[in-house]
């Protein structure tokens, strides 16, 4: 990406003379690469009719006669562009929120599935056969045992309570820190077992097996993954198409701004030449000095820093801009590149 300056100077006997004069003084010292920036003869009306706010960010320019007929007034053209950008912005917010919600919900479930054995979901670990279910007297607990204590667990789990079912433990899974074991015992001994387990650094996980809930969680993750995949492609295509649409509208707004500023400054009849300059990075100050010298006769009291008006088109904004004796708008494509 690069930085461009879009400037406008009043025409001389012909716009070509204005172009050649500016082009000569800037290119002979290799200060910039210059391109003619052609703006059609827009319907300007009177100077009073031009006193409207226009907002812009510009990169490239190609006037679209079909979308923005130049027979229409500047105000009408501006309203068409603003409405287009506003609609894109509204649609973007709605689509982004929908996709972001799906992504966030899926990530939440995925995080639960990759945590340690004390916190992670057990959906993909346990099944019905691992538990004693529908028993009036017996229950199955899940115990997290540190790896260093595997041997101790096997030797002692039956003695943590007199009501533990012998040889009822089974390792379901392990991670880098420890393993998840089952143990079956009488329900009335659960509190005693938990206390003794805690003394031996065995952690009993609070878990009640519910096949419907586990199945629902699996289905939810599958559904969210499918929804995310289904929405990603269309969203990406929509972004590509509408970024292009917004970008084109953006450029046309800038062209309107240049046209309005030029007429307000240089007067009627319309006679100005717009030029797009790409300054050489090492020559920014020199280029600005050359342009100031070339056009200093246009405004002898030009302030160095006059705040530009701020207009809010959703998705587009303009900050303060320096004032020069000629019309000039900075075009920083690096802002787009960073995003």
TrEMBL record:
This protein's UniProt keywords: Hydrogen ion transport, Ion transport, Transport
GO cellular component labels: lysosomal membrane; vacuolar proton-transporting V-type ATPase, V1 domain
Top-level lineage group: Eukaryota
InterPro entries: ATPase_V1-cplx_csu, Vac_ATP_synth_c_sf
GO molecular function: proton-transporting ATPase activity, rotational mechanism
Subunit structure: V-ATPase is a heteromultimeric enzyme made up of two complexes: the ATP-hydrolytic V1 complex and the proton translocation V0 complex. The V1 complex consists of three catalytic AB heterodimers that form a heterohexamer, three peripheral stalks each consisting of EG heterodimers, one central rotor including subunits D and F, and the regulatory subunits C and H. The proton translocation complex V0 consists of the proton transport subunit a, a ring of proteolipid subunits c9c'', rotary subunit d, subunits e and f, and two accessory subunits.
Protein name per Swiss-Prot or TrEMBL: V-type proton ATPase subunit C
Organism: Acipenser ruthenus (Sterlet sturgeon)
